[in-house]
What we know:
Blueprint: H1 2-37, H2 44-65, H3 74-78, H4 81-116, H5 128-131, H6 133-158
Amino acid sequence: MKKLINYLNKGEEILASSLLILTSLLVFVQVVLRYQFNYSISWSEELSRIMIAWFIFLGSSMAVKDNAHVNMDALFILTSGKFKQILSILIDFINIIFCILIVIAGVEMIQSAIDIGSKATSINIPLYVPYASVPVGVFLMMIRYIFSIKNKILDLINGNI
């Protein structure tokens, strides 16, 4: 199981880093071409938006791993021990429910794009490719929350609070 998580961690990091680097390079090249050579790449802006969408949702999963999402921590400050751990597990369960709803909505969005046959205007790829960033990224977040709950329950059982 740890090997799977390590592969997931490494894969997300490599893919997210690659997307960020490629997007930055593409935007930089586009700006230089536009302002120095009065030439514009027609598809660069659309491709950049797609890569940014994938980067954001992969990054969201990585943020779950690092517990870096914005949260209300007033209750955590006021509590301690087992209650704090149980509250954290409850919040993770709520996040999983939210993730399930978003994955369902994302899959419906993809299905709609497939049914309509819509394509991106300048790069002519099916719109389900950028739309897939939503359910894929949120599904990865859900996996992270599941492992977080598992680890927190094990900590409760073993008394590692």
